[in-house]
Amino acid sequence: MTLRTPQPPQAARAADLDGVPIHHALPVGALEQIDPFLLLDHIGPVTLAPHNAGLPFGPHPHRGFATVTLVLAGAVLHHDSRGNRQTVGAGGVQWMTAARGIIHAENLPRELRETGGELELLQLWINLPAALKMEQPAYQGLPAELLPQVASDEGRARLTAVAGSWPGAAGPAQPLRPVQLALLQLQAGGRYQWRVDEPQNAFVYAVRGSVRANSQILAARELLPLAADGDTIELRAEADALLLLGAAAPLNEPLARQGPFVMNTTTQLMEAVRDYQMGRMGMLMESETR
C-alpha cells in the first residue's frame, strides 16, 4: 500500500445562476482539468420559491464527452433529441453520453416549479477519447433505488456506487470507458480507505463537511486532486461530510474545447458547430422541455 500525494486543494468559485447559487469547482484557477474530468459544478443548495422559473438550461447541444448530473436534493427533468424524457429525484443520477452529438435540456419538473422546494445538484463532465467521440449518444437515468449502498467502519461510512467497481458494490452506470464514481457519506471520525489503480487520476470533492485525505485537510466546496503516485487514499472525517469521489485513466490527448463541444482539434470544433447548425444532432424545441 502506497499513499497518494495530495495536491493543493482548490476552492470552488462562487457565482450566481439566475438567482441560484453555483460553485465552479473545475476548471478553477490554473487547474484546467483532472484528465479526463473536465468540469464540476455544484448547484445550490437553495430553497426555491413557489412559481419559480425553473432551471436556465434550455435546449443546447453537446459533443465529445459525457455529462453526469447527481441529484442531491429536489428533482431534474431530462429531455433530449433522441426522445429520452425522464425525471430523476433526490439520490438519483442522470448519465448522458453526448458522443457524436445530442441536444438536451435540464429543467425542474412542473411540481417543483409550481410549489418550490429544496434543490442541490452536482454536474460532472467526463471527456471521451478520440476513438469514442463519434459513437452514438446514449442516456441512462438511475433513480436512487438502483444505486447500491455499502456501509463500513461500524456504520460511520456509507458509499453510494454510481460507476465502476467498489468494495461490496458495482455502480450501475455504463460509461463508454471505465470510470470510478461514488458519493461517500462520513460521520465525524468515520474512515474510508479508497484503493485506486496507479495509472488513474483521482479527485475528492467535499460537498459539505471537512475531511482529511491522506495528509491534507479538505473543507466544504474544495476540490482535491491526488497525484498518480500511489494506490491508496485514506479519508477521515473531521466533521460530518459528504464527498464525491472520482477516478479514471487519463486520455493524454490534445484538448480543444468551445462551449458545449469538447474535441481534439479546432477543425473538429468547427465541424461540431456546423453539424449542430445543420440539424445533425437532432431537434428539441423549448416548448417540449417544460
Automatic annotation (TrEMBL):
<feature type="binding site">
    <location>
        <position position="62"/>
    </location>
    <ligand>
        <name>Fe cation</name>
    </ligand>
</feature>
<dbReference type="InterPro" id="IPR014710">
    <property type="entry name" value="RmlC-like_jellyroll"/>
</dbReference>
<protein>
    <submittedName>
        <fullName>Pirin family protein</fullName>
    </submittedName>
</protein>
<feature type="domain" description="Pirin N-terminal">
    <location>
        <begin position="28"/>
        <end position="126"/>
    </location>
</feature>
<dbReference type="InterPro" id="IPR012093">
    <property type="entry name" value="Pirin"/>
</dbReference>
<dbReference type="Pfam" id="PF02678">
    <property type="entry name" value="Pirin"/>
</dbReference>
<dbReference type="Pfam" id="PF05726">
    <property type="entry name" value="Pirin_C"/>
</dbReference>
<feature type="domain" description="Pirin C-terminal">
    <location>
        <begin position="184"/>
        <end position="282"/>
    </location>
</feature>
<dbReference type="InterPro" id="IPR008778">
    <property type="entry name" value="Pirin_C_dom"/>
</dbReference>
<dbReference type="InterPro" id="IPR003829">
    <property type="entry name" value="Pirin_N_dom"/>
</dbReference>
<feature type="binding site">
    <location>
        <position position="60"/>
    </location>
    <ligand>
        <name>Fe cation</name>
    </ligand>
</feature>
<dbReference type="InterPro" id="IPR011051">
    <property type="entry name" value="RmlC_Cupin_sf"/>
</dbReference>
<keyword id="KW-0408">Iron</keyword>
<dbReference type="InterPro" id="IPR053186">
    <property type="entry name" value="QDO-related"/>
</dbReference>
<feature type="binding site">
    <location>
        <position position="106"/>
    </location>
    <ligand>
        <name>Fe cation</name>
    </ligand>
</feature>
<dbReference type="GO" id="GO:0046872">
    <property type="term" value="F:metal ion binding"/>
</dbReference>
<keyword id="KW-0479">Metal-binding</keyword>
<comment type="similarity">
    <text>Belongs to the pirin family.</text>
</comment>
<feature type="binding site">
    <location>
        <position position="104"/>
    </location>
    <ligand>
        <name>Fe cation</name>
    </ligand>
</feature>
